[in-house]
Structures are given as C-alpha cells and as structure tokens.
Amino acid sequence: MARKPTVYKRCDCSDQNRPKKVGGCPHSWSYNRTSDEGNRTRAAIPESVGLTQAQAQAILDGMAPGVAPEPVETNLTFRQWAADWLSRRRAKEVSVQAYESAIRVHLNPRWGSKRLRTIKKAQVEAWVLEMEANKTIANSTAEGHWKVFKMVIKDALQNGKIASNPTYEVDGPYVEESASYVFSADECWAIYDAFPEQYRAIPMLGFACGLRQAEALAVCDEVIDTDRKLLTVRRQVLRTKETNYRPTIVDRLKTSPRLSTKDVPIPPYLQGALDEHMERLPPRPAKNVLWEHKKTMADCERGSVRALFWSRRMNLVCRNHFNDDAWKPTLLKLGIKDEEGNLPTFHDLRHTFISTCLQNGIPEHTVAAWVGDSVEELRRTYSHLLRDHADTHGAIAADLTARPKLALVRDAA
C-alpha cells in the first residue's frame, strides 16, 4: 500500500510550525508527488503560508492521490462570491429576498470589497461586537445578518475558495429574549366585539387556535371539520414579488417543507363565530397555488377554494390592509398598549394562545403540534413560561420522590 506523502519545508526558518508569530516563516508547505509520467517532483500547497504543519497535512490528506490542490482565487471578493452564492439559492422566494436584502444593505458595505482569503477571525469577532454595540440594529436583525454571512463563508470554504473558515468558533451577536404582549381574556373579547364585521372572526383564530396572521387570512370552508371539531391549517395569504404583489392563497405553511399541514382543536365559541360569519358573509371562490417544494409559484399548478375573508372591494385580505384598516384602529379605540406604549401585533394573539396553553399544563409537545413549531423552538421561545411551572407543579414533583409514609412509621417504631 502506497504511503501517504508528508508535508515539509526546505527553508531554515526556526519557527516553521509557528507561522502566526510576528516575523514568522513566510514559506509555503511542500510535499513530494508522483506525476502522471511517473516522475517524482516537489509540489507546494497553495495558500499554506500561515498554516501549521498539522493544518497543511490535513489539506494534503483530503486530496485524491496524484491530484494537485486547486489554487485559491487570490482576488475573489466577498461581494463577488455572495452574488454567486445568492444565484444558487433554491429556498422560498421570501427567504431569498431576505438574503439579498441582508447582503445588499449590510454585508456588502462592510465586507464587499474585501478579498475572501484576507478575512480573519479577529475581524469577524470585532464586527460581531460592533453589531451588538450599534443601537440602531435590532438584535434579531443582527442575528439575521450573521446567519447569512456564515452561510456565504461556509459555502466559499466548501468550494475551495478559502483555506480556512474565519467564522469557526465565533459566537454570533447576542439575542435577548423578545418581549411579547399577552392579551387578557377581556381584551380578546373586547377586540372581537369592536372589530369590523367582515373581519371579526380573524382575531379569534389567533387567540383561540394560535394561527399566524397569514394563516388566519387564508382560512377556507373545507378545512373546518365540525364533526371532529378540528381546523386544518395548510394555507397562507401571501403578497410578494412572486405573486405580483397581489394577495394570493398559497398551499404552504411558513414551516414547509418540514410541516405541510397541522390540525388545531376548534373551541365551541370559535365554531359559533365562524358559523355566524359564513351565514352572514358566505365563502367566495378563489384561486390557490398548489405549491411544491423547490418549485417557483409560476411553475406550480392552480386549484380552487372557497375563502372566508374578503375586503369590501371583494379582494382577498392582505396583511397591510388588515393592519391599517382594522387591527390598529381597533386597538387604538380600545386603548390597548404594551408597557412602552406600543400597539401589540397580531402575532401577540398567537403568543397569548401558546402562553395560556403552557401555563394551564397542556404538554409542550401537544402545543408544539397545534401551532406548527418544534418542541425545541417552543422551549427556546417560551422558556420563561416553562420555568414558571416550578411553582405550579413543583410540589407535585417533590411528593413523587418523598419518603413513603409507611417507611416513616417503621423508622419511628
């Protein structure tokens, strides 16, 4: 069996294996390889200046026998590779738009002109600290920029454009727990009573079933199972570039393709509200996109459904119209605000549903199945509520491991 080649240096530098030291060895690592003609020659490993012997050997061990390592493109900039990476994305159109925005607005101004091979770990760590110190950048926004940056750099490493990953073992920007508003039962019903008639059942879908706003706007008559008292959620109303900025019902959840449908129990009061709504405003036919993973909406087939919620102009209800014409005016009228004086969002109705379920002892895996999140995501987002269970269930847990009373009696005897 042929022996693997070993890297070496022919120079007389005293610190060959300590290249990061100031004034260290400026030479590349070499190895002996046999050419196609059978001649034994010395070859250098490109971009191995600054690597230890173990790192250079790892590169050599990962090469196919007799193949020279591909040289790194020394002048390739972050902007060039980020554009290439973005052109190969096959994620949902909304996600690709978010990637493009992060690269254009934040990453290119900071890293665009830098050559990929010159980006160092210390520079990345300093950038993370800059984002944390910048009060104009929200924590969630900084986290999004960091995730896109890591994906671009990792892709460059996997395609041989850089020799090492400068984001390796770098902690991303700190993201604190987001503060969400929890509506009281009185507030939920006050919103229902004060809401415009044609939209009245929509907020109830949020606090009674935990639906996201786009899911609530897309409810159709055939997903309401009155016999089993279940609501099947499988659609959203989207208004994006891919839908020509027209509200469109799409058979796709936010969590697809991991999850394509979810069933949520319908409380009796919600069933009554939906029945009343459909009697007063019968569902109307609408086209829906039968979305398939890794396909654009233009390539997907179309179907027909009967949607419950329509605007006064007989268009599907979009998020912006709903918030500006119904949600915000109703909350302002009722005077419902958070501690900082801001209006709660529709998503806070979902947060209210999940919080109420967890605080009343419904198992987290059951709640996760109802709302379409993973148990891990539920624990990460609502850990403060799960910690509160120490007060409500702590005494029960303590009794489970207490000494049996019979044993106490024997000990006393």
Mean of all residue-level pLDDT scores = 84
- Percent range of helical residues: 40-55%
Detail the poorly predicted runs.
none
Largest sheet: 4 strands, mixed
Which descriptors would you attach to this protein?
9 strands; elongated; alpha+beta; single chain; 413 residues; 4-stranded mixed β-sheet; 3-stranded antiparallel β-sheet; 15 helices
How would you characterize this protein structure?
The protein is α+β, with helices and mostly antiparallel strands. It has 15 helices and 9 strands. The protein has a 4-stranded mixed beta sheet with strand order 5-6-8-9. Strands 3-4-7 form a 3-stranded antiparallel beta sheet. Strand 3 and strand 4 form a beta hairpin. Helix 7 packs antiparallel against helix 9 (268-280) and helix 7 runs parallel beside helix 11 (347-359). The radius of gyration is 29 Å and the shape is elongated.
Brief summary:
This protein has 413 residues and is of the alpha+beta class. It is built from 15 helices and nine strands. The protein is 43% helix and 10% strand.
List the helices and strands and how they pair.
Elements: E1 30-34, E2 40-44, H1 53-61, H2 78-87, H3 93-111, H4 121-133, H5 139-158, H6 185-194, H7 201-209, H8 213-217, E3 224-225, E4 230-233, E5 236-238, E6 248-250, E7 262-265, H9 268-280, E8 284-290, E9 301-307, H10 319-334, H11 347-359, H12 364-371, H13 375-381, H14 383-400, H15 405-412
Parallel strand pairs: 6-8
Antiparallel strand pairs: 1-2, 3-4, 4-7, 5-6, 8-9
